[in-house]
Amino acid sequence: MAIDLMPHSMETRRLAAVAFADVAGFSRLMAQDDLWASSQWKHLREELLLPLLDQHKGRLVETAGDAILVEFKSVIAAVKWAVDAQKVTQNNIPSSGREALQLRIAINVDDVLVHENNLLGDGVNIASRIHDAAQPGQIVAAGIVRELVGNRGNVRFVDLGTPRLKNIKRIVHIFLVEPIHDAEKNEHSQLHQPFIEWTSRPSVAILPFRSSSGHEMEEYFGSGITEDIINGLSRSHAFHVIARASTLRFADKARDLQNIASQLGVNYVMDGSVRRQGERLRISAELVDVSLNRSIWSETFDGNAEDLFHFQDTIVASVVGSFEPRLKAHGINRVRNRSTDSLDAYDCVLKAASELYRFTDEGYRHSGIALRRAMELDPTYARAYAYSAWRLNYLFGEGRSDDPERDKKLAIEHARQSIALDPDDSFCQVVAGHLTSLIEGNPHHAMPMFDLALSLDQNNALGWATSAVTLSYLGRGEEAMSRFRNAFKLSPFDTLNFTWWTGAGIAEFVSGNYGEAVSWLQKARHVNPRFIATLRILAASLAMDGKEDQARAVGAELLALDKNFSVDRFVSWYPFVRGEDKSALKSGLFIASLPL
Question: Model confidence over 394-428: pLDDT tens digits?
């Protein structure tokens, strides 16, 4: 018969915010001078930390050696105490010139068991385990803390991933907590924070394959080969792959691999060249470990132009093999990425992509011609249909369509055709998801498409960014910003960054952070002042932020580009789900003096 050592009458449960703090390197300090280290810790604890605890309405639960466990009724109070505790600790410099004590602090929120004023259970254990992720002087927190604090704690959260925790069975997402200082609360400091994620994986940048001739056709051909290799490698979750759009800027520059790796934040760089003479092809590729400045793999492939796809498969398999020698044949087959056997159709899609991102009437026209030709050449080419849907999305969204209803219908048709032809193509799923959200006005149905796309390729920067836009439509601005940071990390110099900055502005708008929204949108407007999607939200954000004169000026710019703009018509189809977001958008646009 089991003996109950803890009478149930003495047990209660409650939700609590707990913080665990200890002194970094305390054993070493004790070994050097135990009397001094002990007195310093007592002074820090009794004279500085505990008075702060009273100030933030916390409770000391337990003291053990160089560690304390404290409890708060408010998670925001716990975070503020931790920030203030680190501040006073860092200012507590011994007059003797000896090494100052440094704290590591961890915060968690969970259901805890209370027994004789002690706290027990997983919630406490997690706090004591995750503090190992903190460096001296740092604060870390479980993901639930980030969710509950949001933007109310005057701190930023930096993703540290999901490390294994000793004796903890659940997965715990850990974030570094950094205070935001007054001097940092401006546009420039907020826009360039990298989203640190997947730190345990190697990172690689595939530079655009160079053409020996310099002919325009050869350049986009080499760029297309690069994109297909990136797509293939991205299907392996073993490494972090920088998006092609961010490596394009290095196409015409001298290849200083150390400098390029530094700008992109990668460990490995792949460089290559393509020579096409008639029907003959020679493709050379080299993979460099930048930290060692050493080539770890290189190969040259010769053959006919019709062998292009075989070359790509071979290169992808060879690079994967150099990273993961244990991959079996089926694993290598999984990362291969051949969408069509028609080289001419492939050429047409490459031409269309190069024209589309010019964002001009002529570019839209030429890309449409090329995509129609690609679909004629290969009616089973999924990406041709996906790019066609993507192009029509811009035509409709930018007010460039001469028949919006026709183009909306065709865009949806082509998006659905693309995923029917290749449901495992991440790009096709992303396009279908975005059109379901924006054009069909159904963000809830779009999210499973994005989740599938990112499960197929978690290196898909476009997938992170477009799914973030849809989360903004749903009113989930904080989650959206987290996904945008993924996109910015994966593709820091993307051609479409101004559209992502616009999306970040939408995310801040639905969070009620109108000043932050204006910062993102002004940055997007600087890059592309004729992008109507930016001007619409910027006018509303400026108005809601109290900058009415600037809002009216932006409204005038919008009307110059879209003379038929109507607030009611726009708000009626714009896919904001929450009524308060639609009301704020409508109010802002009216304040900006835009017509009913």
Answer: 998 887 888 989 999 999 999 999 988 888 788 99
Residues 161/172, Cβ–Cβ less than 8 Å? no
What is this structure's pTM?
0.57
Residue 118 CA to residue 71 CA, distance in Å, equals 10
Choice among 251-255, 347-351, 472-476 with the minimum mean pLDDT: 251-255
Residues ≥6 apart with Cβ < 8 Å to 300: 282, 283, 284, 285
DSSP structural state of residue 220? H
Whether the CB-CB separation of 377 and 346 falls below 8 Å is answered with no
Higher pLDDT, 365 or 14: 365
- Give the pLDDT of residue 357: 80
Q: How far is 102 from 575, CA to CA, in rounded Å?
A: 49
Fold of 355-591: 1.25.40
Closest by CA position to 468, among listed 520, 426, 504, 430? 504
Cα(111)–Cα(440) distance, rounded to whole angstroms? 41
Q: Which one is predicted more confidently, 414 or 165?
A: 414
- Cα(198)–Cα(206) distance, integer angstroms: 18
Cα–Cα distance between 13 and 15 in angstroms, integer?
A: 7
**Which part of the chain has CATH 1.25.40.10?**
355-591
Closest CA to 101 of 155, 30, 19, 20: 30
Contact indicator for 595, 558 with CB cutoff of 8 Å: no
> Pick from 561, 586, 590, 593: which is nearest to 571 by CA?
586
**Three-class DSSP category at 112:** strand
Identity at 27, one-letter amino acid code: S
The length of the chain in residues reads 596
For residue 289, give the H/E element and its range.
Answer: strand 280-289
Structure token digits, residue 94: 């011994």
Q: Which amino acid is at 499?
A: T
Encoding tokens for residue 28?
Answer: 């070493």
- Using CA atoms, how far residue 374 sits from 14, 224, 413, in Å, is 62, 15, 16
CATH number for 203-335: choose from 3.40.50.10070, 3.40.50.1460, 3.40.50.720, 2.60.120.560: 3.40.50.10070
Domain with CATH 3.30.70.1230 in the chain: 11-180
Sign of CA dihedral 488, 491, 494, 499: negative
Q: Which of 8, 141, 161 shows the shortest CA–CA distance to 75?
A: 141
d(CA 76, CA 150): 9
Q: Map residue 492 onto helix, strand or coil.
A: coil
Query: Does 326 have pLDDT greater than 70?
Result: no
CB distance 568 to 589 below 8 Å:
no
Characterize 504-518 residue by residue with b for buried, 16 or more Cβ atoms within 10 angstroms of its Cβ, and e for exposed.
bbbbbbbbebbebbb
Q: Quick one: which H or E segment has residue 176?
A: strand 174-179
- The CA distances from residue 585 to 84, 120, 541, 560, 594, in Å, are 38, 47, 8, 20, 12
Of 388 and 451, the structure prediction assigns the larger pLDDT to 388
11-180 carries CATH number 3.30.70.1230: yes
Half-sphere exposure of 473 (CA within 13 A, CB side): 26
DSSP 3-state assignment of 157?
strand
